[in-house]
Design brief:
Length: about 200
């Protein structure tokens, strides 16, 4: 199964997962903030793993990566990647403050881990509900590094399984602040086929 063979019907179905997951994530974020959070329609694509770094601005771009393992009936992992400006905007929203610059303190890192967990869970729960498959996520781990280094973690651990990646780009807005989040779902090959099969598109 290669990227070219993933037809528009599959992308529509996977896009629906992206839409529902993003909607749930926006709702969860709004309830955390006790404020309205607007969400752009997410862009959903299937990428080859080797192309991921380019999508998030190149291997040397400094990013925040939140990484979780997927377990139960779907194996693989999930990454939520933010550029530093988005990460600072998100923590300012969460902590109700106006901090500038690209430095993230311990409180910001803790808040980002929490929101990464909530956002990832929103997508996983949507995927689980649509497919009927049991999926759980691990406790998140967070790193601030160049995109190439962040991406090397799943490449080293799962390089032999994650040829295809489901990429969901979502933009959340609250007042004048904007957060662009890139969510990558990296199921192993048999899990990818299991997802598509349970959605009736394989």
């Amino acid at each position: 199964m290669d990227v070219e063979n993933l037809n528009s019907m599959m992308l529509d179905v996977l896009g629906e997962i992206g839409n529902i997951g993003s909607g749930n994530a926006a709702t969860a974020l709004a309830s955390m903030l006790s404020k309205r959070v607007d969400m752009n329609v997410p862009k959903v694509r299937i990428l080859e793993f080797k192309d991921v770094a380019e999508v998030i601005g190149g291997e040397e771009k400094l990013v925040v990566g939140i990484y979780l393992d997927l377990n139960e009936e779907i194996k693989g992992n999930m990454m939520f990647i933010l550029d530093l400006e988005s990460a600072v905007n998100l923590t300012n929203m969460l902590l109700n403050r106006e901090k500038s610059g690209n430095q993230l303190d311990d409180m910001a890192i803790s808040a980002l881990s929490e929101v990464g967990n909530i956002l990832a869970s929103s997508y996983v729960n949507s995927l689980s509900a649509l497919t009927g498959l049991r999926i759980t996520v691990s406790v998140p781990s967070l790193a601030i590094d160049m995109a190439g280094a962040i991406l090397s973690v799943p490449a080293i651990q799962f390089g032999y399984i994650a040829d295809q990646v489901l990429f969901i780009e979502t933009i959340f807005e609250e007042d004048n602040r904007s957060v662009k989040g890139n969510l990558f779902l990296l199921p192993d090959m048999s899990s990818f086929e299991k997802i598509l099969s349970s959605l009736g598109v394989l």
